[in-house]
């Protein structure tokens, strides 16, 4: 943006703009119970008026929107591949087999930790915390009730496992959006998250095991689990060969093949499996890639679990991503975000405190704007240059965006994620939050560990790794 009449926004002006946007989003989401799309459009209008007041032309504003969207174009395209992969992997039997085998590991004594593993497997396979909680999570809630485990405890475990997979899966939209905003790539991003996610997961498993031990004497009702497995095995040829698409993606990721060709390969490998093992036609494959998988198994929970995927299923997320990126572009382009972040970082003298500032900012944006995508985009725009100037790797920022944005979203009742979890599990976020261990412990470790000198990923360390 170049204009001789342009004025730099003062801190008070920037705060006023952000407060007005927050009021628009929060008011619409809470009072009108609206989807965030139109509210985000209204927020773009507010940000555009602010830019006009500062002296920017309409062409400048449009260009800033384009710039904002362009920054994450790869992630936006990847959304379509995610939808195609989910549909193809269901059709080929990959996702159904993961669920069927996962249900086999349930044991009455270790229900909570095994439930965590099951939700983790399902959400990694689908890349979706919402679908996992709304399907397998519902089943686990019923099983937990039969064991006498309080609903908030089971719900917290389901949310933890669902968001672990959502955070770590290469099929997840947030796992692709965060590195796109930060300037990293998905594989480096996932590797960076292991520093804090592995200890978090170990602690969570241990705590869930300790909590669940008091219910170890209960008998596990296998009727529902057997019904699910029978329905799946009645429709799919469940055998280890169907895991090949997932194996291909994992092998290519280890080989550092770029995400898009790696995902395309994983989708392509599922085609012969669908044809020869599941007896599907090429027409079936094309339909599923676009519209997703459809079936009538006679068991509602299985139908709900597997009727998903396809390009069209990603349009809600895609449109939300485009609008959020456009808003971030305007706020960044007119300097509103810069004015705020300067005030935030001017008191940060050591880079080890930047992760804390980032995660807290994500949480505050989640509280105020009530959407994890908005939290990731806006916070990423705020801190991207700050991390670069501080000598930190882009994947350090993308990791913090996931920890502060993705994980905390479900802990807020009025956030879209918290609302979905309540609708699926019947337990409010305020009730299950203490037991959603991964969702609050991972951000805490993301704050504490860098302060202690562990997992602070500096750019000079990356250069040394490349030399070695």
Report on this structure.
The chain is an all-alpha fold and 468 residues long. The chain has a domain at 73-314. It has helices spanning 11-31, 36-53, 58-70, 73-91, 94-103, 111-126, 129-134, 136-146, 151-168, 173-182, 186-212, 223-235, 244-254, 259-276, 282-291, 300-306, 315-333, 336-345, 354-369, 372-389, 394-406, 416-425, 429-432, 437-451, 459-467. Helix 5 (94-103) packs antiparallel against helix 6 (111-126), helix 17 packs across helix 20 and helix 18 (336-345) crosses helix 20. The longest helix is centred in the middle third of the chain and has 27 residues, at 186-212. The protein is globular, with a radius of gyration of 22 Å. 53% of the residues are buried.
Major β-sheet profile: none
As a percent range, the share of strand residues is under 5%
**What proportion of the residues is helical, as a percent range?**
over 70%
Calculate the terminal CA-CA distance, rounded to whole Å: 41 Å
Question: pLDDT under 50 segments (min length 5)?
Answer: 463-468
Class derived from helix and strand content:
mainly alpha
Number of helices: 25
Q: What's the total count of β strands?
A: 0
The pLDDT mean sits at 85
Compute the gyration radius: what is it?
A: 22 Å
Order of helices and strands: HHHHHHHHHHHHHHHHHHHHHHHHH
Gross geometry: globular
């Amino acid at each position: 943006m170049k204009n001789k009449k342009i004025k730099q926004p003062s801190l008070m002006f920037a705060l006023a703009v952000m407060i007005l946007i927050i009021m628009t989003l929060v008011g619409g989401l809470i009072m009108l119970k609206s989807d965030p799309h139109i509210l985000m459009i209204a927020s773009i209008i507010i940000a555009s008026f602010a830019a006009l007041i500062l002296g920017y032309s309409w062409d400048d504003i449009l260009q800033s929107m384009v710039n904002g969207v362009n920054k994450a174009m790869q992630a936006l395209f990847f959304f379509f591949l995610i939808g195609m992969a989910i549909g193809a992997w269901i059709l080929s039997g990959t996702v159904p087999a993961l669920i069927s085998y996962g249900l086999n590991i349930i044991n009455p004594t270790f229900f909570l930790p095994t439930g965590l593993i099951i939700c983790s497997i399902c959400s990694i396979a689908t890349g979706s915390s919402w679908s996992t909680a709304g399907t397998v999570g519902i089943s686990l809630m019923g099983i937990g009730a039969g064991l006498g485990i309080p609903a908030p405890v089971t719900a917290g475990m389901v949310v933890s496992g669902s968001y672990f997979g959502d955070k770590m899966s290469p099929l997840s939209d947030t796992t692709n959006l965060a590195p796109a905003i930060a300037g990293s790539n998905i594989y480096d991003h996932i590797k960076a998250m292991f520093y804090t996610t592995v200890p978090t997961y170990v602690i969570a498993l241990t705590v869930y095991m300790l909590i669940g031990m008091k219910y170890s004497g209960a008998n596990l009702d296998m009727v529902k689990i057997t019904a699910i497995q029978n329905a799946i095995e009645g429709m799919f040829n469940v055998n280890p060969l169907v895991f090949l698409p997932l194996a291909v993606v994992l092998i290519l990721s280890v080989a550092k093949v770029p995400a898009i060709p790696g995902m395309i390969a994983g989708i392509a490998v599922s085609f012969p499996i669908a044809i020869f093992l599941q007896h599907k036609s090429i027409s079936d494959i094309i339909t599923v890639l676009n519209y997703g998988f459809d079936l009538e198994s006679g068991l509602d929970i299985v139908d709900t679990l597997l009727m998903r995927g396809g390009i069209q299923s990603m349009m809600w997320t895609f449109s939300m991503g485009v609008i959020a990126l456009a808003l971030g572009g305007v706020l960044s382009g007119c300097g509103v975000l810069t004015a705020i972040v300067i005030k935030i970082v001017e008191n940060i003298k050591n880079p080890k405190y930047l992760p804390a500032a980032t995660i807290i900012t994500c949480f505050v944006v989640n509280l105020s704007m009530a959407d994890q995508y908005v939290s990731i985009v806006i916070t990423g725009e705020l801190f991207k240059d700050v991390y670069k100037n501080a000598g930190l790797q882009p994947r350090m920022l993308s990791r913090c965006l996931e920890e502060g944005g993705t994980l905390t979203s479900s802990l807020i009742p009025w956030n879209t994620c918290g609302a979905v979890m309540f609708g699926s599990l019947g337990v409010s976020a305020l009730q299950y939050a203490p037991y959603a261990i991964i969702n609050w412990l991972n951000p805490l470790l993301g704050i504490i560990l860098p302060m202690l000198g562990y997992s602070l990923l500096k750019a000079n360390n990356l250069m040394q790794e490349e030399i070695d």
